Amino acid sequence: MHAKVIKLDSVESTNIWARKHLAELNDFDVVSADIQSKGHGQFDRKWFSSSSNGGNIYISIVLKPDNIEHLNELTRFSAVIISDILEKDYKLEPNFKFPNDILIDGKKISGILAESVFLGSEFKGVIVGIGINLNLNEEELSNIDVPATSIFNETKKNVNKEEFLTHFMEHFENCYDKFLEFGLEQELSYIK
After folding, report:
1. I want to staple 35 with a disulfide (CB 3.0 to 4.6 A). Which of 10, 42, 136, 169 is the partner?
2. Does a cis peptide bond (omega within 30 degrees of 0) precede residue 99?
3. What is the pTM for the complete model shown?
4. Distances from the Cα of 139 to the Cα of 62, 119, 123, 142, 151, angstroms
5. Looking at residue 99, what is its pLDDT?
6. Angle 68-76-28 (CA atoms, 0-180°, nearest 5)?
């Protein structure tokens, strides 16, 4: 994996942290936290986080591409990468709920929040915040204000957070250049 992972124990939000440190972060740096005290999604909806039972994915990927033609499709691109892993590695059947959620049988398993950063009219980068429920148990899932699930809840098997993150980032990186070139116009045939 080429990405540099910055590991934090606890943070308000990986997106907020990445935005504050954007100038010193490089393309493909990943900010990862065990706990987010103010994690949020679309429309400032709160994202519940826990580090118990093996932890979950709370990351922000910093991207600073020269070609920003397809950046408005980054959320969907990220969702397809996550869905591909859920399907192939865990035999789950994910669905994408516009604009930024991944569901299993109508229950949220992942959320994505891409935020572009400009200084005036100058593009400085984009931060892709991703939360994936790996190991939340039923009691923890009941703390979420929408129907939610986790890989553990679906498969009854713990997921190694570090291995999942490495696999996800390798898959993301392997497809990213093609995405920048083609966007989603080829329906992501280069991912399969």
Report:
1. 10
2. yes
3. 0.90
4. 33, 43, 42, 5, 14
5. 82
6. 55
